[in-house]
Amino acid sequence: MPPDGLSSRAGLSDAYERRLRIVLTQGHMPQNPAIEAGLAGLNR
User: Fold this and answer.
1) Domain of life, per the record (predicted)?
2) pTM to 2 decimals?
3) Is residue 23 within 8 Å of residue 40, measured between CB atoms?
4) Residues 7-13: contacts with CB under 8 Å, at least 24 apart
5) Band of the pLDDT at 1, cuts 50, 70, 90?
């Protein structure tokens, strides 16, 4: 699995999943560039 962890949803950590869920529920992008990159990867 690539180090960026974007290729597999199963590779996401619990904390990342939790943060993603909050972001998607609240409908706004987080300030964390790594999270933003992750969201961009999932939306590809």
Assistant:
1) Bacteria
2) 0.31
3) no
4) 9/42, 12/38
5) very low
DSSP percent split of the chain into helix, strand, coil, nearest 5: 60, 0, 40
Domain boundaries, the chain: 12-43
Six token digits for residue 36 = 């933003």
CA distances from residue 8 to 14, 27, 38 in whole angstroms, order as listed:
14, 23, 11
Q: What are 20's two structure tokens?
A: 């993603």
What CA–CA distance (Å, rounded) separates 25 from 22? 5
For 23, half-sphere exposure in the C-beta direction (CA atoms, 13 angstrom radius) is 15
pLDDT at 34 over 60: yes
- Which amino acid makes up residue 43? N
